[in-house]
């Protein structure tokens, strides 16, 4: 059973989400909160598998709440809700450690699928959607040190990666799926999965979202990155 905490300042939305989620036999809503501060208390008390988090709330917003949940309760994963498909606050929540974002206008089936995906440890931001978000907000990211023309990463955060793992990370940041990466690098999908797992482990990234953001921050991706 996957347990869920609903965090939104609109009671009507929480009720709607609860009805959708609890219609699924493998999902259970264990609590609700109307702001980030109450959400933190609920996470500490209930240890939900997934926190469905609105980013725009009075008091402590979803960004700060997400940052604290990720730092203090790493077993609880955060799925942020947003009204717009490219929302600067949703993007900030991803940088704070959320595992993905979902539009509030999503269909019920999309909501429950997203919750299951996040609970399984995978991000729910489609790679190309994430890339569009990062391209839009890249000017606001901390300036990283771009790789040199020979492909060796100069940013110390990437120093542990092998050349092949750097290639994999660069392709992830370009929005490529595992199948597309396998085709590009002429290796099997199983090999790609191994490389992706190693990249996440070495970077301390929980999922693709965090890995892509770090690639942009380090200059491996984006307008300032060196071309292959």
Beta-strand share of residues: 5-15%
In spatial order, strands of the major sheet run 2-1-3-4-5
What is the CATH fold-level name of the largest domain? Answer: Rossmann fold
What shape does the CA trace take? globular
- What gyration radius follows from the Cα positions, in whole Å? 18 Å
Please give the share of residues in helix: 40-55%
What is the CATH architecture descriptor of the largest domain? 3-Layer(aba) Sandwich
The CATH H-level superfamily of the largest domain is Response regulator
Q: Helix count?
A: 10
Q: Which class best fits the helix and strand makeup?
A: alpha/beta
Major sheet size, sense and barrel closure: 5 strands, parallel
The average pLDDT score comes to 85
H/E element sequence:
EHEHEHEHEHHHHHH
For the record, the CATH class of the largest domain is Alpha Beta
Q: How many β-strands, per DSSP?
A: 5
Number of domains: 2
* Uncertain regions spanning at least 5 consecutive residues: 146-153
Describe the protein in words:
There is one protein chain. The protein has 228 residues and is an alpha/beta fold. It folds into two domains: 124 residues, Rossmann fold (3-Layer(aba) Sandwich); 82 residues, Arc Repressor Mutant, subunit A, CATH 1.10.10.10. Helix content is 48%, strand content 12%. The protein has a five-stranded parallel sheet with strand order 2-1-3-4-5, with helices on both faces. Strand 1, helix 1 and strand 2 form a beta-alpha-beta unit. Keywords: DNA-binding, Phosphoprotein, Transcription, Transcription regulation.
